[in-house]
Specification:
The protein has about 270 residues and is an alpha+beta fold. It has one domain: paralog of FGE (formylglycine-generating enzyme) (Alpha-Beta Complex). It contains five helices and ten strands; from the N terminus they run H-E-E-E-E-H-H-H-E-H-E-E-E-E-E.
Length: about 270
């Protein structure tokens, strides 16, 4: 799918470039959890972290980096209910100096989830900057080296995921089984690493030596267009209908396919 078709497919989501903001009550009623907890997982070397202000757990599984070292990747794309804690400071009671120091996005003036679904659904409509800052916040909250993967790391993760080409529909939401919406994270099969939605659902921001990229394809793409080789360079079309001047550096009015997952270079320090 071309940049133009991505953009055109999104026009129906807006009215005059603006959607009404609907904030679910759960945004302001996030449960207050105890201090961050690191829990073992079932996969060898995997771990889970809980973040104050969020009722869920973020699981990381190991993958082998280019230099042979072990790094870790989140099994799911970052969901809205975790991103809400970041952007709306729902963890304020538990915030540390490090987490407070992370610059947060402006609050959205439109329904950034586009009515697709919220709790458990991948956070979307996010710029590379918004994804980068959320990763830094997760790092500060969980005492891990959380960040966006590089494009090379993402491709290694994808290769090690071993998603069979003849069974993509079992692992991915595409425009052939979900043309108009994202789905809750983790509802398709887990791949060989233990990750979900590496193909399809939301596309995933990565860092590149020159420019950020969007990897993996999304729910808007054909099953033949998602995968390890699927990458997009950001386009101004992804935010063309934003009526603000200057346009938002955090939110993409025409980018409902833009999400992310995070990697970590290390496990959390026990007891943090």
């Amino acid at each position: 799918m071309t940049m133009k078709s991505h953009s055109n497919a999104l026009r129906a989501d807006s009215v005059g470039g603006v959607l009404l903001l609907v904030l679910s009550a759960h945004l302001f009623g996030a449960a207050q959890s105890a201090a961050p907890v690191v829990a073992p997982s079932t996969a060898s070397g995997a771990f889970k972290v809980s973040l104050q202000g969020w009722t869920g757990e973020l699981e990381f599984v190991p993958f082998t980096a280019a230099d042979g070292s072990t790094k870790f990747v989140s099994t799911i794309e970052i969901p809205w209910d975790l991103f809400d804690v970041f952007v709306f400071a729902l963890d304020d009671k538990f915030a540390t100096d490090a987490s407070k120091a992370v610059t947060k996005p402006t609050k959205p003036y439109v329904a950034a989830d586009r009515g697709f679904g919220h709790k458990g659904f991948p956070a979307i409509s996010l710029s590379h900057k918004a994804a980068t800052q959320c990763a830094a916040w997760i790092a500060a909250k969980a005492s891990i080296d959380a960040r966006l993967p590089t494009d090379a790391e993402w491709k290694l993760i994808c290769a090690q995921a071993k998603i069979p080409a003849d069974a993509i529909e079992e692992f991915a939401w595409t425009n052939e089984n979900s043309p108009d919406t994202t789905h809750k994270c983790g509802k398709k099969k887990a791949d060989a690493l233990g990750c979900f939605d590496l193909y399809g659902n939301a596309g995933e921001w990565v860092n590149d030596a020159k420019n950020p990229r969007m990897m993996g394809g999304s729910f808007q793409d054909a099953r033949t267009a998602v995968g390890c080789a699927s990458e997009l360079t950001p386009s101004e079309d992804w935010n063309s209908s934003d009526p603000q001047f200057p346009k938002s550096i955090w939110w993409l009015a025409d980018g409902p396919f833009c999400g992310f997952r995070v990697v970590s270079d290390s496990v959390p320090v026990k007891g943090t």
